[in-house]
Amino acid sequence: MKPNSVSIKLKTFLFLFCIFSFFVCKKTSSDTEPESNLPNTTKRPNVIWIVIDSLRGDIIGRYGVTPNLELFAENAVTFKYHLVNAAWTRPSTLVFFTGKYASANPVNFWDYPTTKSEVDAFYRSEKRPLPKLLKDHSFVTYMVGNNPFLTDKFGLGVDVGFDQLYDFSNYSEDTKKITKKTFEVLNEISSHDKPFFLFLNYNDPHKPYTPPQGFTNRIQTNEVLDERKMNYLGEVAFVDEELGKVFAELKNKNLWENTIVLITADHGEVMHAAHAISPFTGTNTYYGHGQDLFLENIHVPLLIKLPGSHLKQSIQTMTRSIDLFPTVLDYVGLPIPNSIQGKSLKPLIENKETTKRTYYGETRFTQGYGEGHEFLLQRSYRFHELGKFWLGSVGSEFYLYSDTKKDPNQENPLRISNIATIQDMKLQPDLEKKILRFWKQIRSMEPKLPLYHLSIQPESKDTEILIRVPSGTIRMASYPSDLHLEEKEKLVQIQTKRKDPFEISFEVYPDVSFPEFSVSFSKKQIPKSEIFTGYFGVSLASCQSNCDLLYESGSKRPVIHPNAKVYFWKEGGQKKSYSSKQELGTDALEILKKQGYVQ
Q1: Which residues form the Sulfatase N-terminal domain (predicted)?
Q2: For the segment 285-338, what is each residue's pLDDT rounded down to a tens digit?
Q3: What total of structural domains would you count in the chain?
Q4: Residue 28, in any domain of the structure
Q5: Chain-wide mean pLDDT for the chain?
Q6: Is 402 inside a domain boundary?
Q7: Cβ-proximal residues to 148 (8 Å cutoff; 6+ apart), any chain
Q8: 367 plus 455 within the same structural domain
Q9: Sheet holding 491-496, edge to edge
Q10: H-run or E-run covering 49
């Protein structure tokens, strides 16, 4: 071969190799580089999410203290029947940022401390809360406000992924400081090319109600008000004035038109004497919240100004706080994850809604379900954690049914002591059927409890099984009809003369303690070495402490060895910490005192 021929072929090869390498590298780069590092070719709308803590759904436009919010509503969509799915700040905020019910994430909604195991579990399970998800799509994200539950510094909450977080929960007279910092952030934001997400969280009118002088003078009403409600409304007037300044600054910075502005509250406030003492917790909740799911606790405002729109619209249909996460994604043009339990409000705004939304909520000692204006609330131990709110015993769980068209303040709900004996109440057939359907909906909406299974191959005609739990109660799920059971909440004793193999299944309610059990044939107890457990059939004697993972079989039934006299396994449910000894630190306690959470 001639030298120049080799040279030409070599040059051709190198040229083609370079082209190939360029496209491969380009493809690899675009596939692996985070979107936040890519040039922003399409300007998405900005998002400002404003939370006014404890603002009830019946305040705006009623007492003369919300002129700026009323002016805002002239160019916004107003949702008249908007309900939050949790009734105090931490779980409600996590509903905002996960689009899921409070029980769908590992952080408890009973006590103030968040244990390290809860926080770690949240970070494992919630990879992309809303601020993180938006950050991944080129948004710069800020939080300005008073919400101690959005940081993990004080043992009160979790970090949901803001680029910058300015929390004023440790400051007195925080409202003006929040507005001042918002102006600084808007000044910084206005120089960015990227879209932004700003979460603005005012703590007023959360108790203690201490409005600046003169703001209660703005109240206009014929209603006879006590001092607490006057001061509450004075704080509403104060926040409204501060929001007016924020709205003006947004317009001055030319940020108004291309910004979604969403205004809501994390919960309401109890002001009706009929609910002064919560029937669910027995706690004095007058001018407070978080102890029930009555409408005054869960009905809050929702106003949304759409980008580039001056649409004024009023929507009467029920909406829920789980719907806000997917709504934001819908309007900024991002796909909604399949794991989200809410539904975007965009079809409702565009009059394309085909199904009615239903309500499911959770708070301390309470679960609830609603359709339209009818609700069934349950006193519930379902999500309890051991701590100062609960010491381990399970009491009666009653139900309250109300129709808020007939009883707007829910003063006289129908009480059902035991759902299993509802037929004894001799209700109208349609009402009984509806209550049972609502009850089934509550059961279907909540996460399932783990099931424990025991497979027994008797050696004699005299088998005895004892199951105990230190906290909570045992609930039998399935067992042969010829077994004799004695159930005493924390103890179940089973006796049978059967000689053929059988299985029993049970759950621990709530899932806060691990069951202990013993099996005896003809009064002779089976040793741990002869009891096999979990998916792999490991001997129970092989583990002495922290053995709960050993028992797991996931969703699959283990292959039970034919010679196993006793086989035990746990189906479903992740490993969890069954008790918490965590106390509030000094900083956390001071924050909660300033915010009126603790006295």
Answers
A1: 45-333
A2: 999 999 999 999 999 999 999 999 888 999 999 999 999 999 999 999 999 999
A3: 2
A4: no
A5: 89
A6: no
A7: 154, 156, 157, 167, 169, 170, 588, 591, 592, 595
A8: no
A9: 484-488, 491-496, 463-468, 516-521, 524-525
A10: strand 46-52
